[in-house]
Specification:
five-stranded antiparallel beta sheet; Beta-Lactamase; Heat Shock Protein 90; alpha+beta; 20 helices; Rossmann fold
């Protein structure tokens, strides 16, 4: 697909900056001059060949630095600016005081009239052979530059019909010289042009004597079984004027833009993910507040209803509310915010305690197995996030086996993360743990696996998948300092999270058995700016046996405490409208009233809402919506910790 330069009197155009830079670094002897025979570009090879190292040539006359030495190409530059190519030889001094040698030169017009002229120098005579187009137009220098760039070069002579392709052009397309297409149809098939009609229109326009000769097209050839994105950029040279003006010569470039295209697409996906994350955070906060009110009132209403049918209806509504909370949790994971804070915990022991949660989502024909293999391995993460991530992977493994099968959750300590990515096994004393959820399903096609982590991408039937599951798993692994990958094939699929191990003490755990801990008259100050959410929290705490007080913002809470009112625990939302946040309230309490316990809650505990001077021992955060049981245990944990810290109890 041809390109070239107009020979019919077009206005001069300077080459792009990248071409100037490329020429300047080229080892071949090549220079470009404007219509006034002044330097536009000159390569290092040119300066060495003429002994002009260190001479500032750009903007200088063609004969600069040559002294009395004869240079036939200098005179030929002026003629080439008018459209006349020439070639010859000169005696050239290689360096000051050095011997002369015979140098052959070629001068050819790059742009007509007052346009650009190129000159190349070589040490030996050129012969006419099957590469004659290059020799007549001095293009081997251009070919060297194009090859160094990894750019394919094509030249076509409309008079003789001869076409020459550089080795790089053939290599990019993965063909031999014997495999060069002989027809336009074969070219279209090789290049896999997606819009054939648009290609034909663009080609006709480039060959139109009244046009600019430019041809630019994106193509998608398959090379070694992989689709590549390439760009064909060409321009046609015309000879003659008026009715006699006809295409004479063309030069074309083939550029592989696959990596560039992949980077652009990756950036676009990243931007989409960032936008989705911001939206998710905004929606999730308000949605979780609404769910908190719904769940709280359903729980408060359930004990007051005697009719079994009505109780079942309330229980179903509560289950649906929790399902909505689970979906919102995925949105929050995608957004980069989460309800709890990371703690250090024993992975195998934790998975053993949460085993029933995974079994509940499976059908009877699915066998679930746990193979603990990371004895002593501790990780630093939000346990609820890890649970949600594994649950997502278990559900995916279940759906991949509609006729039944087996799911295996396993853990294993491994060595360096880089080693893990490329091969199995690793150093048992290494610094990472691998959590694998494997199934015996048919595997995932490569085209689907490549998109598996995209937000909202799902292959499940409508209503059975949100497309947020794997996206949230990837986000969870990333926040814990690890990675996630999928290994798939005919024998099944392995979803693998790799998390770093950590040292230190485990976080204290209060077992949440079936008996809900009740209050003993302690006073809880609820700080919440949403009236409905605040009222629901007050009613739930009263039902648990606590004395309650309320404040709509942090300043009101501090004023209430400063008045002398007894407060044992402050239960505050993190995001408070019109003033300090719950984190800042915690800082003030730790400074002025360290005896008071603090429990925080949020629909979206994003780092964006936290203070720069947040306390080092930030209190527990209870994610909205929370159940009455979760609230009871969280309040009891915080009160017990405060009593231990003050020496009471």
């Amino acid at each position: 697909m041809p390109t070239g330069r107009d020979m019919g009197g077009a206005e001069a155009r300077l080459p792009p900056d990248w071409i100037n830079s490329l020429i300047a670094e080229a080892p071949v002897a090549l220079a470009v001059f404007d219509g006034d025979a002044r330097y536009v570009s000159a390569s290092m090879g040119w300066q060495r060949r003429l002994g002009l190292d260190g001479v500032a040539l750009i903007g200088q006359a063609a004969g600069t630095g040559l002294g009395d030495r004869p240079a036939g190409w200098v005179a030929a530059v002026a003629a080439a600016a008018l459209g006349k190519a020439a070639s010859g030889s000169d005696r050239v001094q290689s360096a000051p005081g050095g011997p002369d040698r015979l140098v052959f030169w070629k001068v050819w017009p790059v742009e007509a009239g007052r346009g650009l002229v190129a000159v190349s120098l070589s040490d030996s005579a050129e012969t006419e052979d099957d590469q004659g187009i290059y020799h007549r137009y001095g293009s081997e220098s251009i070919q060297d530059i194009a090859s160094a760039l990894g750019v394919g070069l094509l030249e076509h002579d409309f008079v003789t019909g001869a076409t020459v392709l550089s080795d790089t052009y053939l290599k990019l397309l993965g063909i031999s010289r014997e495999g060069i297409p002989k027809t336009d149809a074969a070219w279209l098939d090789l290049l896999r042009v997606r819009d054939v009609e648009a290609c034909r229109v663009a080609r006709a326009r480039a060959l139109d004597p009244k046009g600019d000769g430019i041809f630019d097209l994106e193509v998608w050839p398959v090379v070694d079984g992989v689709e590549r994105c390439m760009r064909v950029q060409s321009r046609v040279l015309f000879a003659g004027t008026g009715a006699d003006r006809q295409p004479r010569h063309a030069i074309g470039l083939l550029v592989d833009r696959t990596e560039e295209r992949q980077m652009v697409e990756a950036l676009a996906r990243s931007q989409r993910l960032e936008a989705v994350g911001r939206l998710a955070g905004m929606v999730a906060h308000d949605f979780n507040n609404i769910l908190s009110v719904i769940l709280g009132n359903l729980e408060l209403a359930l004990p007051k209803v005697a009719d079994d049918g009505a109780r079942n209806l309330l229980a179903n509504a509560m289950e649906a509310t929790l399902m909505g909370a689970g979906f919102n949790k995925r949105l929050l994971n995608l957004a980069g915010g989460h309800g709890g804070l990371p703690v250090r915990f024993h992975l195998d022991a934790h998975l053993g305690q949460t085993w029933d949660v995974y079994r509940r989502v499976l059908r009877d024909e699915i066998l679930l197995q746990f193979q603990p293999g990371s004895e002593g391995a501790h990780i630093h993460a939000d346990p609820a996030e890890i649970d949600a991530a594994i649950l997502n992977l278990v559900v995916n493994a279940r759906d991949a086996q509609p006729d039944g099968g087996r799911i295996v959750i396993s853990t294993r300590q491994v060595g360096r993360l880089e080693t893990l990515v490329t091969k199995e096994g690793g150093d048992p004393d290494g610094g990472f743990v691998r959590i694998t959820v494997a199934d015996d399903g048919p595997g995932i096609p490569p085209s689907i696996a490549a998109r598996a982590g995209e937000p909202f991408f799902t292959t499940k039937p409508r209503g059975m998948g949100s497309g947020l599951g794997l996206a949230s798993v990837i986000a969870t692994a990333g926040r814990a300092g690890g990675t996630f990958r999928i290994e798939t094939g005919p024998a099944g699929t392995k979803a693998i999270m790799v998390l770093p191990l950590c040292e230190g003490e485990d976080a204290p755990v209060v077992a949440q058995n079936s008996e809900v801990p009740l209050g003993d008259g302690e006073t809880v100050l609820v700080v919440e700016d949403d009236p409905l959410v605040r009222e629901t929290a007050l009613q739930r705490l009263e039902a648990l046996g606590y004395v309650v007080a309320e404040a709509s913002n942090a300043q009101a809470a501090l004023t209430h405490i400063a008045s002398g009112a007894g407060v044992d625990l402050v239960f505050s939302d993190i995001i408070l409208a019109g003033g300090p946040s719950g984190i800042e309230l915690t800082t003030a309490l730790r400074r002025e009233n360290p005896r008071i316990a603090v429990l925080l809650t949020s629909g979206h505990a994003s780092a964006a809402y936290r203070s720069d001077d947040e306390p080092a021992d930030i209190p527990e955060i209870l994610a909205k919506p929370y159940s009455l049981k979760d609230l009871a245990f969280a309040v009891r944990r915080c009160l017990s910790a405060a009593q231990r810290g003050s020496g009471r109890g």
